[in-house]
Design a protein that fits this description.
alpha/beta; Rossmann fold; seven-stranded parallel β-sheet; six-stranded parallel β-sheet; about 20% strand; binds 1,4-dihydronicotinamide adenine dinucleotide; binds 2-oxo-3-(phosphonooxy)propanoic acid
């Protein structure tokens, strides 16, 4: 087992902003002052005093006295506070209840907060009642909080130091806390190490003094090689989200304890190489190119989420060889693209866009010339995948006749008809809409020759990928009148952010609707993607399941039960499985489940084993020559 016990070590843990996410007194103020006119002002004043006290800028005694006076709290408010605090236990403490019960004889809560609200919270989590040291309130006859027990050392300046001296713990003392008074225990020489706890708040003055900065309790347990709920603390893992993915994604990753960075735009190759060095989870949309060079410079990268449908921007083969699984959202924005295509084809068939532009310039051009209904017209779709299929259903409902051309044989829905050749589709259609994927070989599939084959006065739509169409040829076909109108949402080169200018030969041409790659940019689609992709990524990170991956052998795994899970990704050459199982046999390991899936390039083997294994065995598995990536789950 990868854990050890620190038999002679005592853990002194702070309560406010460490054991719980919040400061108890601040929250008590928010409760006791509810409904009062000056509530926000007083709560802010109390919070400010708490912060200054915690950062060591204000004498503790002074801060406490003044805050109690401002509180105007009653005994009854404490019940509400305790209920509130139950929901505010720091996530990493909630996750590691087992550590608390296992080490209950060595854990002490030392807080300058108040026993009345601390005790119920920490004892429910397994802390011993006689190991909780905190202040106590004084109450008036009517139950109002009038003050605190001034004889308690914790109410005095340097109180924690005095208390620890009294406790005189017979071993090493490790202090975990977020405040300056926690550091003072180390400064006094009474504690051997101070761990600045930053899961809830980071105080610069405190961090500077710490022996270690721990971003969570998992992190603390990991550093000290103690048993924990996460094999590797998520708070040590970085998630980099680009291209302004939905806020929900940020929330989902933060809730799991990851460090999350969200950037509004895409990054170019060099910028990404710089950023991705220590990133474990990368989230992108259609713009960020994840090239071989990027992947070669991302040693910690575990998984990539494409928060969109297309994955042509990612070198999927290299990602696979590097053991990086890739997931996307194959259906979340399908409908949004379809609705936009339908709207645009109607606008273009009627010349509405052009007429509207003229109106803005003061020109009144009422005429029916070149203005047609879509009903009864032939819609030719190139690419009959998820978008194509859905578009065909909506177009038929509008009375259109649907033709499609796809590289593979497809089951046509309703009355749609598959064309045997692209030429056939080009020659017959009144409206041509592209819905192919962005694979490299699709570059310029529509160029001069293809435009020449189209009917005169055709409407042309590209909402798929920019490089699929020869833009120069499209501009020429528009100028010559071969195409009566076009809608283009995607371009061979697109700005990385909204701050960059858009350049294209299509700018300024009449009856061309240009949109900034927004086919999938609806609130509905983005919210759905923001939920879907993180769940896929988290499922992979938390269970090893690759269901839905676009580049990895697909494995769906049962939840882990009283075992540890070893995830081994290796080059798929003969003999690796026998090496792995040889190591298990050598160490007499009890295997409770094993799953293997391979592709041409890699093998992905997942083994659930009983927890009593050795570090040497783990090292041997890592050291197998063909190992690409290895990780463990508890
Ligand atoms: N404008 C935007 O914001 C959005 C653009 N897209 C683009 O739309 C594409 C299609 O999306 P889905 O329909 O969900 O993908 P899909 O993978 O379900 O369908 C693509 C279809 O195109 C076919 N295909 C590929 N190359 C072809 C070719 N040269 N000729 C004929 N057929 C070909 C494939 O066989 C497949 O049936 C995505 O890959 C993405 O590039 C997707 C969402 C939003
Ligand atoms: O889903 C896709 O493939 C798209 O093209 C949409 O891309 P976006 O998320 O808008 O960058």
């Amino acid at each position: 087992m990868l854990t050890k016990t620190l038999e002679q070590t005592y853990f002194v843990i702070d309560f406010d902003s460490t054991f719980t996410k919040v400061e108890g007194l601040d929250e008590l103020a928010a409760i006791s002052l509810a409904g009062q006119k000056d509530r926000d002002e007083v709560v802010a004043k109390i919070k400010d005093m708490t912060d200054r006290g915690m950062a060591g800028e204000l004498s503790f005694e002074q801060a406490l006295q003044q805050r109690i006076e401002l509180l105007r709290a009653h005994r009854d408010h404490l019940e509400t506070l305790v209920e509130f605090l139950r929901g505010k236990i720091s996530d990493s403490f909630s996750r590691n209840k087992q550590f608390i019960s296992e080490y209950r004889d060595q854990i002490f809560i030392v807080s300058s907060g108040f026993r009345e609200f601390i005790l119920p919270i920490v004892t429910e989590m397994g802390v011993r009642e006689d190991h909780v040291f905190a202040n106590t309130f004084r109450f008036g006859e009517d139950g109002t909080i009038t003050g605190y027990d001034e004889t308690n050392v914790l109410s005095q300046n340097g109180g924690k130091v005095q208390l620890l001296r009294q406790l005189s713990l017979p071993g090493d003392v490790y202090v975990i806390g977020d405040g300056y008074t926690d550091y003072e225990l180390r400064e006094s020489g009474l504690a051997n190490k101070f761990f600045a706890f930053t899961e809830n708040i980071e105080r610069q003055r405190v961090i500077e003094k710490a022996d270690h900065i721990v971003t969570s309790l998992d992190d603390f347990l990991y550093i000290n090689k103690l048993s924990r709920s996460q094999s590797y603390p998520k708070s040590r893992l970085k998630v980099l989200l680009l291209e302004n993915v939905h806020a929900r994604a940020v929330e989902l990753f933060r809730r799991e304890g990851f460090q999350v960075e969200l950037l509004k735009g895409a990054l170019d190759e060099d910028e990404l190489i710089e950023k991705v060095k220590d990133v474990a989870i990368l989230g992108i949309r259609s713009k960020t190119m994840v090239t071989k060079r990027v992947l070669e410079n991302a040693p910690r990268l575990m998984v990539i989420g494409a928060f969109c449908i297309g994955t042509n921007q990612i070198d999927l083969a290299t990602a696979e060889e590097k053991g990086v699984a890739v997931f996307n959202a194959p259906y979340s924005n399908t409908r949004s693209v379809v609705e936009m295509a339908v709207g645009e084809m109607i606008l273009l068939m009627r010349g509405i866009y052009q007429k509207s532009v003229k109106m803005h310039e003061g020109e009144w051009d009422k005429s029916a010339k070149n203005s047609n209904e879509v009903r009864g017209k032939k819609l030719g779709m190139i690419g009959y995948g998820n978008i194509g299929i859905q578009l065909s259903v909506v177009a038929e409902a509008l009375g259109m006749e649907v033709l499609f051309y796809d590289l593979v044989e497809k089951l046509p829905l309703s009355n749609a008809r598959q064309c045997h050749t692209l030429e056939e589709l080009l020659q017959e259609s009144d409206v041509i809409s592209l819905h192919v994927d962005g694979r490299k070989s699709n570059a310029n599939i529509i160029g001069e020759k293809e435009f020449a084959l189209m009917k005169d006065g055709v409407v042309f739509l590209n909402l798929s990928r920019g490089h699929v169409v020869d833009v120069k040829a499209l501009a020429a076909a528009l100028k010559s009148g071969k195409i009566r109108g076009a809608a283009v949402d995607v371009f061979p080169s697109e700005p990385k952010t909204n701050d960059e200018a858009f350049e294209s030969e299509l700018r300024g041409l009449p009856n061309v609707i240009l949109t900034p790659h927004i086919g999938g940019s609806t609130e509905e689609a983005q919210a759905s993607i923001g939920e879907f992709v993180p769940n896929k990524l988290l499922n992979y990170v938390n269970t090893g399941s690759t269901f839905g991956s676009v580049n990895f052998p697909e494995v769906t795994l049962p939840p882990l039960h009283d075992a540890h899970r070893l995830l081994h990704i290796h080059a798929n050459v003969p003999g690796v499985m026998s090496k792995i199982n040889g190591i298990f046999a050598k160490y007499n390991v009890n295997i409770t489940g094993q799953y293997l899936k391979t592709s041409d390039k890699i093998g992905y083997v997942i083994t659930d084993i009983a927890k009593n294994y050795s570090n040497e065995m783990i090292q041997e598995l890592r050291d197998i020559e063909q190992t690409i990536k290895f990780r463990m789950l508890y």
